[in-house]
Amino acid sequence: MKTIIFAGALALFALMAAPLAAQEQTQTQTQTQDQGAGQDAGQERPAGPHFAFESTEYDFGDIAHSLPKVECRFTFTNDGTAPLVITKILTSCSCVKTEYGKRPIPPGGEGEIVVTYEVNKKESGVFYKVIEVYSNSTDRRNNLIVKGNAVES
Fold first, then answer.
1. What is the mean pLDDT of residues 19-28?
2. How many CB atoms lie within 10 A of CB 44?
3. pLDDT(94) > 70
4. In this predicted model, what pLDDT tens digit does every residue of 131-152 receive, in sequence order?
5. What is the pLDDT of residue 5?
6. Kind of pairing, strands 70-78 and 96-100?
7. Residue 31: pLDDT over 50
8. Are residues 28 and 67 in the same domain?
9. Helix H or strand E segment including 5
10. pLDDT value at residue 30
11. Could you tell me if residue 119 is left (phi over 0), alpha (psi between -120 and 50 degrees) or otherwise beta?
C-alpha cells in the first residue's frame, strides 16, 4: 500500500515539474533573444555597464592664447547590459572643467561629456590634459585626453 502511494506521489510530482521546466527553458530562450536584439551577429554585449566612446582623444590644434576657453564633446554609448552611472570625473588641471549627465544611461543609451579648456589660465605652448572618468562600468575608470597648442596671436 505504501509503495502505491509513494509511486502515485512521484508520478504527480513528475507531471507538475515538467511544465515548470518547459516554462523556464522558454523564458531563458526569450531572454537570450532579447539580449541579442539589435546587435551584429556573433557580437555579444559586455556583462554589466560599459562605455563605448566614439573617441577618447581630442586635438584642438593651434588655438589663440587670448581665447578665454575652448570646448569639445566626448560622446559615448552604454554598450553593456546594465545602466551606466558616472560617479565622478577628475581632471589633471584646474584649467579643465567638465559637464556630464547625472542620470543613469540605460543599455544602448547615449551620453556625452563636455570638456572646457580655459586657454588663458595657462601659459602659451603645447598642452596635454587627462580627464579620468570614474563609473560603475566594468572598466571602472576611463581616460579622456585633450591636447593642443596655445599660440600667441
1. 44
2. 10
3. yes
4. 999 999 999 999 999 999 999 9
5. 52
6. unpaired
7. no
8. no
9. helix 2-36
10. 40
11. alpha
Domain, as residue range, for 35: 1-40
Same domain assignment for residues 76 and 128: yes
Domain count, the chain: 2
Helix (H, G, I), strand (E, B) or coil at 17: helix
d(CA 150, CA 63): 5
pTM of the predicted protein model: 0.70
Greater model confidence, 4 or 116: 116
* CA distances to 57, 99, 113 from 73, in Å: 10, 10, 6
Q: Any long-range contacts for 53-60 (C-beta under 8 Å, 24+ apart)? A: 53/142, 53/144, 56/142, 56/143, 56/144, 56/145, 57/144, 57/145, 57/146, 57/147, 58/115, 58/144, 58/145, 58/146, 58/147, 59/146, 59/147, 59/148, 60/117, 60/146, 60/147, 60/148, 60/149
Four-residue CA torsion sign, 34, 38, 43, 45: negative
